[in-house]
Amino acid sequence: xxxxxxxxxxxxxxxxxxxxxxxxxxxQKECAAIxxxxxxxxxxxxxxxxxxxxxxxxxxxxxxxGQLECLKLIASQKFTDKRIGYLGAMLLLDERQDVHLLMTNxxxxxxxxxxxxxxxxALCTLGCMGSxxxxxxxxxxxxKLLKTSNSYLRKKAALCAVHVIRKVPELxxxxxxxxxxxxxxxNHGVLHTxxxxxxxxxxxxxDMLLHFRKLVPxxxxxxxxxxxxxxxxxxxxxxxxxxxxxxxxLRLLRILGRSDDDSSEAxxxxxxxxxxxxxxxxxxxxxxxxxxxxxxxxxxxxxxxxVLAINILGRFLLNNDKNxxxxxxxxxxxxxxxxxxxxxxxxxxxxxxLKDLDVSIKRRAMELSFALVNGNNIRGMMKELLYFLDSCxxxxxxxxxxxxxxxxxxxxxxxxxxxxxIMRVLTTAGSYVRDDSVxxxxxxxxxxxxxxxxxxxxxxxxLLDDISQQPLVQVSSWCIGxxxxxxxxxxxxxxxxxxxxxxxxxxxxxGLLVSNLSTPVTRGYSLTAIMKLSTRFSxxxxxxxxxxxxxxxxxxxxxxxxxxxxALFKKYDHMRSALLERMPIMEKTASNGPxxxxxxxxxxxxxxxxTKLPPLITQPANQANDLLDLLGGNxxxxxxxxxxxxxxxxAGGELLDLLGDLSLSGGPAPAPSVPISQPPxxxxxxxxQPLFNxxxxxxxxMTAYNKNGLKIEFTFERxxxxxxxxVITIHATNTTEADMTEFVFQAAVPKxxxxxxxxxxxxxxxxxxxxxxxxxxxxxxxxxxxxxxxCPHLPHILIQFPDLFVLSEKFSAEGSYRVQLYxx
Length: 824
Known about the structure:
Elements: H1 7-15, H2 20-39, H3 46-59, H4 67-75, H5 79-92, H6 104-111, H7 116-129, H8 132-146, H9 151-167, H10 176-182, H11 188-204, H12 206-212, H13 216-228, E1 236-237, E2 240-241, H14 243-257, H15 261-277, H16 283-298, H17 303-316, H18 322-335, H19 340-344, H20 347-352, H21 359-372, H22 378-391, H23 394-411, H24 415-429, H25 437-447, H26 452-465, H27 470-489, H28 502-514, H29 520-532, H30 540-549, H31 556-570, H32 573-579, E3 597-600, E4 603-606, H33 621-631, E5 640-641, H34 654-658, E6 702-707, E7 710-718, E8 726-734, E9 744-748, E10 754-757, E11 772-780, E12 796-800, E13 807-812, E14 818-823
Helix pairs in contact: 2-3, 3-5, 4-5, 5-7, 6-7, 6-8, 7-9, 8-9, 9-11, 11-12, 11-14, 13-14, 13-15, 14-16, 15-16, 15-17, 16-17, 16-18, 17-18, 18-21, 21-23, 22-23, 22-24, 23-24, 25-27, 26-27, 27-28, 27-29, 28-29, 29-31, 30-31, 31-32
């Protein structure tokens, strides 16, 4: 058989291939020749064939059939065979294949070989692909080589020990005595590998970490010698003595000094020397400075040293290398929470990074800029960030808009500035904002009573300029519907009012309904705004025509709204003014309880005292949702009942359909807010104004309902000893000849009230007045509100009964309150 070609000739031949198919053909031909040679047990050229096979493996072609040949080369006595055999084992074998166990004995023999280079090959192979079984069997030999005087073997044995510890952590103590002596070695290679071994042991064992902390002075001395030593050609890299060893020592010091005062104190001086004496003109010095900064920030260092570290990162921001700038921004972002003032000194440089062409640097600069925003620099930072929002790529707009919203909500110096900022974001990047931006801005506008005229005028102007930003259009539609009368009357004092007629306002809203840019949600906002203007404008007939047109819309949601609004104009016109009145001020409360802390420019304002509450038994979710749907869901609290109702009643009927668009789960409500669970009825420790203003001490009983054989009477009294609690007792009687079963009484009140429904005496109303069902309701207003309109403080009562029609009745008694009773 002719001699196979050499590796160099194979490489030259493969490189002449013009296509992938031609290269593949050459490889397959050579692989066939190598297989034939392996089958013939050709020992002469086995080394050459395995070398060529390794080259093919590096090109991505399968070479697994050469694994056993690698073992044969390892068992050879020739050094050249062993070298190729061990290299092939490291590339073609791993611990998932049982074949690698066959060479355990060969490695053990080679570890005890008389030639250091053969021992080095065995150490490299074991440290690269040794399995846990191999590591257990050969750990003793590795530990012996750690104690040898040969520095060439000691550095390789140290790295092999790192692999052994990773595979079998319980063998760590075996290497402890030998590891202590490694730091006294003068050879930099041994020092380097010993520091790597110490780092691995400290990271894996808290006991080892405590044990090696006493080596901090020795590590500090080694690092100081590196800094102060003169030029050494053997270790010099760009004028710096062995930067690789310096970086490794700094990493180990960071681990040893973390959460330890004594160790941190011992290394403060050397860290300051490294930070001030390292040359920054070359990348090697920057690498050492970066590790120094990380060490300073991770240990319990002095405040002056931390400021020095942040100043180093500030200098990195001025570097021309993009990688260094990115590293600096990332590091500053991690430290901004602990050293905020020091990072603030570099604010202008950070803001300049927003103009960088590299997208990674721009993203990090944007995140760090938002982290630097506080009450003192909110105006300047928002100006820069809004400019960035105008010019940035679309991929940044969503995150930037969210950051502006959060920062403005937390640090806004005034409500007008807050509103202007949010409107600027909606105008610039309205299509990229979060889903909750619309209800949050609506809530902000609603609570800023003095800014209503200014806001509606600004939004109207924005609507004339651009209707493509849907969140902006939705907020504008809502505000025009709520405060359209202020827009037409020109009552704006903050800026020059504009002259707008009712027809012009309606033209704009009708244009939104027919625009191709409007989404179904936006059309719902627009139709609701037009409907609300029916109580604020005199053009009622025009509004009726617009609403009636959409009663046959192909959009089901829009059609339902139009049908319900038509019903308001016709059958329920007497309720229209009350239903479409302006929304009250919405209080923003925490979702996990009744307490919220509002922070503005460093001042905290507790809203509701924190009270530990006992567990409550509430009504089923569908009953509560039915009631919330009926009442608009914006100023209503869930009912608290002491026992479970017997059976949930179904929602339905004309009145529920009529008010369905105010549902929390439906389309855009006139004033979105999140319903929360109210605390239970508190009888002690609450001081509040009387529930009903100027009400007489004795309220006469009243008949709330008397139809279809069902009669419901209310009696009223004050609770003792707290006269601020109104106690309402209902008496339900039945004059028909059959018992009325499954009787459920429900009630709901505005959020400013607290309501407690005690359990009823029965859920069956006996026939022929042979008995009655009684139930007690307690109502309290803990917000101390006085002189408020009648409507927002009305208890709304829902009585569900499956055999009766849906009826709407109004009843009034002495005092400023009204009961709305709905029977189903």
